[in-house]
């Protein structure tokens, strides 16, 4: 019986690690560094260029330099969508 409990725990742990390794969607906060071309600073080491950051039409019209934004990171971390300004 103890062997089955340990096996169950091991399977659960492996499943959790697999989900974490796949980098599921996540909210990311950043600051607009440039609007043309679009650049968003996420932290001191990471600035995203316009090839990785997308906006909706509504927000592309009102985003300005130094605006704080919240983004949705796509699974895998290669694409980011600005979903709103943070106030």
Q: Return the CATH topology.
A: OB fold (Dihydrolipoamide Acetyltransferase, E2P)
Number of helices: 2
State the helicity in percent bands.
Answer: 25-40%
Oligomerization state: single chain
Indicate the structural class.
alpha+beta
Q: How many domains make up the 3D coordinates? A: 1
Specify the overall morphology.
Answer: elongated
Please describe what this structure looks like.
It is a single chain. The chain has two helices and six strands, in the order αββββαββ. With 87 residues, the protein is an alpha+beta fold. The chain has a six-stranded mixed β-sheet with strand order 3-2-1-5-6-4. It is elongated, with a radius of gyration of 18 Å.
Summarize the structure.
With 87 residues, the chain is of the alpha+beta class.
SSE blueprint:
Elements: H1 2-21, E1 26-35, E2 38-43, E3 46-49, E4 53-55, H2 57-60, E5 68-73, E6 80-85
Parallel strand pairs: 4-6
Antiparallel strand pairs: 1-2, 1-5, 2-3, 5-6
List its salient traits.
2 helices; OB fold (Dihydrolipoamide Acetyltransferase, E2P); 40% strand; single chain; 87 residues; alpha+beta
């Amino acid at each position: 019986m103890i062997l089955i409990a340990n096996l169950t725990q091991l399977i659960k742990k492996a499943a959790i690690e697999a989900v974490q390794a796949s980098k599921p969607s996540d909210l990311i906060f950043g600051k607009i560094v440039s609007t043309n071309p679009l650049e968003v600073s996420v932290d001191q080491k990471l600035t995203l260029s316009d090839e990785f950051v997308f906006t909706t039409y509504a927000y592309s019209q009102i985003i300005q330099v130094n605006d704080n934004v919240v983004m949705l990171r796509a699974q895998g971390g290669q694409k980011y969508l600005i979903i709103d300004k943070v106030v």
